[in-house]
Design brief:
alpha/beta; eight-stranded parallel beta barrel; TIM Barrel; about 35% helix; two-stranded antiparallel sheet
Amino acid sequence: MDINDYTWDYRNVYEWMQRTRKGFPPLIISAAITGGVEGKEAHENLPERPEEQAQQTFDAYEAGASAVHVHARNPEVWWMTSSNPEDYIKVNSMIRERCPKIIINNTTGGGPDQTTEQRMASIYANPELCSLNLGPFVLKVPLKERAEPLPHPRPAFVYDRIIPNSYADINLYAQTMKEKGIKPEMELYHPGQYWVFNDLVTGGLLEPPYYFQYVMGFQTSSFPTPANLLGLINELPPQSMFSTIGVGPFQLPMNTLSIMMGGHVRVGMEDNLYYKRGRKVKDNAEQVARIVRIAKELNRDIATPEQAREMLGISQTPSSY
């Protein structure tokens, strides 16, 4: 497969029509199985412990996910993201044992109160991809009470934080990923962050194909509308691929539009705990199964891990632990 088979000028209407006739590249589905600041107090099936994360990854893998996005949890505070590389190694190794070919993608977003050094713990756990936030963001998240018998109970409270990311921080993440042979999955929250991407390219820290993850509907990110997603795609640099996140009720429309435009998708309980209004999702696999079904109705094949690796330009040899 040539890079031109899966990256093109998405603004070219003739190209889009031609690819619609012939078929877009296979759809890469990433499952974000758990987030950084919520636990079972928010959803009884949200995976916290390594065994739970490995099992839900396996179920999502069987349903059609070719990649998994991992937030290792802190064993001393299960509802928070870990800053210990050993916790990531444990989760990653258990995932690899059950899912021999899946692409493992660790977060560097971490948790709200972590330092840059603590967020980098995941890079040292030998993933194949790492998320790379292209700038700071502000969040105000109300968290439900975590009551006994759940471990590490706490009262309800509101996380009101800024997640700092300077040019120097982002360059450090990217430089470390490059040294370790890890491909950055660039999390882009609004179009101004393309400036940061340009800085990384100028500094020689990125190699094509460039892989962007559009975060739609998160606080201080772009509003989750078709017009805004099309605007982000309109600024996409050459030799780039994109995937789309829709937070909460915006997951399904943003994912579906991404499929239609020739992009890829992220689903999972990090982004959305509901299947539809009034009914929580059963688990991560249910979200994967639904997007597989929608993609097939829209004439998109589902990428195998091998196809996803080729498109992303990463090794066909899965990471080992």
